[in-house]
Amino acid sequence: MSDGKRAASAPWIRTRLRTAPGAAVALAVLVLVTAFLAAAFPRAVDAYETKGLRHDIRLADAGRSAVEVSSPQPGLELPREQREAGVRTPELKRIGGVLGKALPEPLRADMSSVAYGLRTMKPVLATEPWLPRPDTVPPQLSYTAQTGLKEHARLVKGAWPTTPDAVTSSSRAVRGAVTEETAAALNMKVGSALRLPAAVGGPLTVTITGIVAPRDPGGSYWSADPLVRTPSLIPDPASPFPQNYWTGTVLLAEDAGPALLATATEPSLFWRFPSDPSALTGPDGARLTAVVDSLESGPGLLKVRAIAGDTAEVLTGLGHIVQANARMRDAISPVIAVAALGIGSVAAVVLVMTGALIAARRKAELALMRSRGGSLRGIGGRLLAETAVTVVPASALGLLLAVLAVGEGRWWPAALAAAGVGLLVCVALPLRTTLQHIRPTLHGGREDMVSARPSRRRTVAELTLLLLAVGAVTALRRRGTSGGGTDLLVSGAPVLVALIAALVLVRLYPLPLRLAARPMARLRGAIGFLSLARAGRSSAGGALPLLALLLALATAAFGGSVIAGIGDARDDAALTAVGADARVSGKSERAALPDELVSTVRDLDGVRNAAPLRIEFGVAMPETAAGDGGADGSGSDDSGTDTGPGANTGGGDAAGARATTMVGVDPASYTRLARTTGLPDFPSGLLKATGPSAPLPEGAESGPERVLPVIASPAVAARLGKEQHAVDTLSGDFKVQVVGTVERVASLASTNFLIVNSASLEERAPTTLLLTGAPDPGKLRAAADGNGEEFVVQLRSEERARYVNTPMQAGAERIYLAAVAAGAGYALLAVLLSLLQTAPERKTLLARLRTMGLTTGQGRRLLAFEATPQALLAAGGGLLTGWATIVLLSPGIDLVPLALAGVAGSDTSPVTLRADLWSLALPAAGVVALAAAVAGVQAWWASRRGSITELRAGDSR
User: Fold this and answer.
1) How far, in Å, CA of 359 to CA of 374, rounded?
2) What gap in Å lies between CA 806 and CA 828, rounded to an integer?
3) Which of 302, 371, 646, 820 has the highest CB neighbour number within 10 Å of its CB?
4) Nearest CA among 957, 951, 876 for reference residue 920
5) What are phi and psi of 567, to 5 degrees?
C-alpha cells in the first residue's frame, strides 16, 4: 500500500510542475530573492561590525591598542648575577614567548612586531653643553634597550650599536643609536657621548654609534612610545614661567640592559604585544572586553604574574577601544533593527499573499478533489510535497548566494533566516489552501464590500489585534525610544502602525465607495458605476494586501528619511566648520587678510559672492552683564572662553556667555551669503549706524562713547538685554546695544557671539573671507599662497568628504539603502499580486462587456478607475503610516553615530530624525502609477484576445 502511494505521489508532483511551470518558477524566484535577503542581512551586520572593530583597533594609537606587560627591575635583594640575567635578552625572550602563548582568545598578538627589553622610567637630565636649550632648560632623555632594532630600522649613518663585551651592572660604557628626527632636533651625531649618573662609581657613558630611520614609522615598534621615534618639546611643569625643554629617547644596544641597573633611572622590564585584529569578528567584542578586564585586574593578571613576576602589571587601552566600538554598535543597532523587522514583515506578508494567490487559482481544482473524497491531510500533504520541491532548493540557493555575496559573517543566523523563509512558504500554502476546504464550498453570491457585513469572528479578531497594536504604540510613546540597545517594541513600530492603519482603513474603505456609488448610478455612463462596484467587490482591497503595502511604504519612508537625515547632518556639519562654500583665513586667529588677497579671490572665476569677516575671540563681556544674569535673571558664575573657531563657550545658555566672540561683517554681503547657504539672516539695515555711531573714516580712532547696534546670539542677548554696555576689543572700545538675535553665524560653532558692522570698527581688516560658488581649488590656493604661507584655504566639499564612512557606518548605510530598495520592490510586488489575484475576473468582465458594445478605450478606463480607489487608499495610508512611524521613533533616534561619529572636530550635537518629503511621496506615487500601469496593460492584453476565448461554454466565471 505504501509503495503504491509513493508511486502515485511522484506523477502528481511531476504533472503539477509540468502543467504550471510558470507559477512554479515565479514562486521559486520569489523565495530565492527573499531567502537571499533574509540570509544576507545577518551576515551583512556581522560583516560591518567585524570590519568596524578591526578598523577601530588598527586606527587607534599603537600605544593604546597594544598589550604591554611591565615589571619593575629585579629586586635589590637578589644576587647581582641573577639580577643581570633577568634583564638579558635570552631570559626576556623566554618570558615573552610564554606570555605570547598565554594570551587568551580572542586576543591575538602580532608576533612580528613584539618588542621587549629594559627602559628607564625616570628621564635623565642631560647636561652636555652641545644639546639644545630653547628656554635655557636642558633636555631630559630616556634610555631603552629593546630587541628588534635591526629588523625595524635601517642604518643611515655610522654602525649598529653592539656589545663587544658582556655588559654588567658595573659597566661604565655602552653604545646606542638615535633616529634621524632625534639627531636633527638634539644636535646629535655619530660619536656624540651622553653621561648618566650611576648610584655607585662613575657615570655611565652612552656613545652614539649610529643614526637610524624607521622602516615603518607608524608601526607599533615606533609608535607605541612616540618619543622613541620623534623627540618632543614640552613645557616645564615645575617652572613658574612658560619654559620648554626637549625630551627624547636613546636606543641602547640590545644586551646593554644590565648597565641601567646601576643608574637611578628606575629601570623597568617590558614586553609589548601589538594586537592583531585580522582574525577578530564583530561578536568577539564582548569576549575581548572581558579578556582585557581579566588581564588588567582579574584571573588573567594572576597568570601573567606567574610568568613575568609577582609585581607585573598589564597596561592597555584596548578595552576602551572595544567599548567605544560597542557604544557605536549599540547606537546603530536600533535603527537597523527597524529596517530589518519592517522588511522582514512585509516579505512575510508578500509570501503569504503569494500563497493566497496560488490557492485562489486552484480553488476550483481542490474543491473538486474534496468533493470526490479527498481528505484534508491528503490534499495538504500533496501541496506540501509539491511546494517543497520548488521552495527548498530555492531557499538553499538563496543561502548559498548570500554566503558568496557577503564573505564575512556567521553562517548559522543566515541558515536559520533562509530556513525560516522556506518553512513559511511550505507551511503557508498548504495551510491556507486546506483551511478553505474544511467545509464543501458552493457557488454563492458575490461578496461585495459595499453591502456585505464581515463575520463576528473576523470583527472580534480585528478588534483584538487593533487593541493590542494601539496598546503597544501607546506604551512605546509613553516609555520613549531612547533606552539604548535593540528593543523589539521600538523596532516593531512600523509594523504596529501599519497594522492599525490597515485594520482601520479596510473598515472605513466601504464608506466612501457607498457615498460615491449613489451619484454615479444616476449618471448616463456605466464606467464610473461599474468601476466603483468592482472596486468594492474586489479582494485586492483586502487587509492583507493593504498591510503589505503600508508596511513596505512605511519602511521605505523611514529608511529614506534616515539616509536623507545622514546627508543633511553631514552637509550642516560641513557648513558649520567652513561657513560657506569656501573659506580663506590666517593660520593664527589674529592674522589679517591683505586687501590685495581679498580683491584677487573675489575676482576668481566661479566666485558668486565674497563676504569678509573680522572675527575676534575671547571678547570679555561687560561686568554688569556677565554678573547680573541679564534678562533671564541668571546669576551663575559659570564661565567659558572661546579659543578658536570651533569653540563653544556656553553650550547655548545665558549662563555660559561670560566671554563671547565678536564678528565684524559687511551687512550686505553677509546677508547675501546667509541666504545662499541657508544660515539665519537678518535685515542688513539693522546694523546701520548713524550719527556719532556712523562708520569711522579710515584710520580714525573709536571712542568709548560710540554705541554700535549688534546682532547677538540668544545667550548673549539674554545677558545684555536692551541696555547699552561698554566693551573693550582689539578692534576698538565702544558700547553695544542688541537690536536682534540669530541662532547661528557663519564659520562659528560657538553659540555666544556678537555681530557688528565692520565699517564701524577702528580695526576693520578682515581675518576671514567666506565665498559662495564653485571656485577652482587650485587657483584659490594659488592666490592664497601668493600672499604668504600664513593663509589657509578650506573648502566645504573637502570638509564634507572628511565624513567618510567608517566600515560600521558604511555597512549600516548600505543596509538602509537595501531596505529602501527592498521595501519599494515588495510594495510593487504586493500591488502586482493583489491585481493578479483578480485578473481572470477582469478579463472575463471585459469579454462580457465587449459583447455588449464596450469599446477598448472604455475597457481601459474601467480597469484604471477600478484600481484607483485601492491605489489611493494604499498611497494615502502609506504616507500616514510612514509619517506616524517617524514621529513615533524620532525622539529616541540620534543620527550622529551614523553621520558624524569618528570625525575629529565634528559637531556632535544630536541629529534628530525628520520626515523626508521625497521618501514619503515617491513610494506612494509609485504605487499609484504601478496600479494604473498594470490596469492599462491588462486592458490592452485582454483586448488582443477574442471574447470566445474568454467566454467558454460552461464556465462559471
Assistant:
1) 16
2) 33
3) 820
4) 876
5) -65, -40
